[in-house]
Design a protein that fits this description.
Structural class: alpha/beta
Mean pLDDT: 94
CATH superfamily: NADP-dependent oxidoreductase domain
Number of strands: 10
Strand content: 5-15%
Number of domains: 1
Number of helices: 12
Strand order of the largest sheet: 9-8-7-6-5-4-3-10
Order of helices and strands: EEEHEHEHEHEHEHEHHHEHHH
Radius of gyration: 20 Å
């Protein structure tokens, strides 16, 4: 298991992060994830730690707090030393019926943090992330509240999820202007079948030295290799009952067609090839995987041992390449002459 710096910080995280959205009691709208007993959660966390994973990601909204509670219990049950793991959670989603029990207002951020700490049985969060944007709350208010969390010692670093490039840039400017804690990481949907992040977010992350944490790297299970074009997915598969995130299926199956022989040549699953492609991207810090069984977890972690050849990477890059889009194609055209003077090629 390789380790990487989280963005521009000195925090070290494993290249695989165990996501805990599957840690569910099977109630309410989270019933699609099924139900997990605490003993099964403990086993998953233990197996991940034994294979070098030190990074865990949850959110207060997952199963209405149940995921955080089960994650905290697993940490206690296994006796994990606080300095030996990095814990990330999130704030934004509705946590009660009140009008102020959702969003990114100062009131909700501060109360939600205390509630998360109580469920997790921890005295601080390593990475506290906003789960998205709040159209009713100015970024200045949210960032000031998050800075207060850092100054109080309850949070070490802050991150963001699912924001546009312009909102991310604006937030970094606000933090710089007001000397507030800055976002150090971007958690976003990114897979070989969904490379939209590369248009604006990846160049921004590279420029501002932000960690990139892909969620749903298997596109909701579609890239597991268990789905076929002309058939419904396997019974019990999450994608079968919860068709998310949106994916161009024909494009995805064209990618799977290329991944299958590569997987066979390496003697691994198609899922491992999809994950290995992400792990080969220099801008990726840690890939967030989810699992309901130990077998799924170990198969996913096995991707860290897959070394794709230059030819294989080229095949995968070509079949999954994003279609040209303005202003990218125009920027590439305008940059060509200057880059040619150094024998380089535009990557716009």
């Amino acid at each position: 298991m390789r380790m990487k710096k989280l963005g521009n910080t000195g925090l070290i995280v494993s290249e695989i992060c165990l996501g805990t959205m599957t840690f569910s009691d099977g109630e309410g709208r989270w019933s699609v994830l099924g139900r997990m007993e605490q003993s099964a959660v403990d086993d998953l966390v233990k197996s991940a730690v034994e294979r070098g994973v030190n990074f865990f990601d949850t959110a207060n909204v997952y199963s209405n707090g149940v995921s955080e509670t089960m994650t905290g219990r697993a940490i206690r049950n296994l006796g994990l030393a606080r300095d030996n793991f990095v814990l990330a959670t999130k704030v934004l989603g509705r946590m009660g019926p009140g009008v102020n029990q959702a969003g990114l207002s100062r009131a909700h951020v501060l109360s939600a943090l205390d509630a998360s700490l109580k469920r997790l049985q921890l005295d601080h969060i390593d990475l506290y992330q906003i789960h998205g944007c709040d159209p009713l709350t100015p970024l200045e208010e949210t960032l000031d509240a998050l800075d207060a969390c850092v100054r109080a010692g309850k949070v070490r670093y802050i991150g963001l999820c699912n924001l546009s490039a312009w909102e991310t840039t604006k937030s970094l400017w606000i933090s710089d202007q007001h000397h507030l804690a800055r976002f150090e990481s971007i958690q976003a949907y990114y897979s070989i079948a969904g490379r939209d992040l590369e248009r604006e977010i990846v160049p921004l992350a590279n420029d501002q030295r932000l960690g990139v944490l892909p969620w749903s790297p298997l596109a909701g299970g579609l890239l597991s290799g268990k789905f076929a074009r002309d058939a419904q997915g396997p019974e019990g598969a999450r994608r079968t009952t919860f068709d998310f995130p949106p994916v161009d299926r024909e494009r995805a199956f064209a990618i799977i067609d290329v991944m299958r022989p590569i997987a066979a040549a390496h003697g691994v699953s198609v899922a491992q090839i999809a994950l290995a492609w992400l792990l080969h991207q220099p801008h990726v810090t840690s890939v967030i995987i989810g699992a309901r069984t130990r077998e799924q977890l170990l198969d996913n972690i096995g991707a860290t041992g897959v070394e794709l050849s230059a030819t294989e990477r080229d095949q995968l890059d070509k079949v999954s390449a994003l279609p040209a889009e303005y202003p990218g194609w125009m920027l590439e055209r305008l940059s060509a002459d200057r880059l040619a003077s150094l024998g380089e090629r535009s990557s716009a």
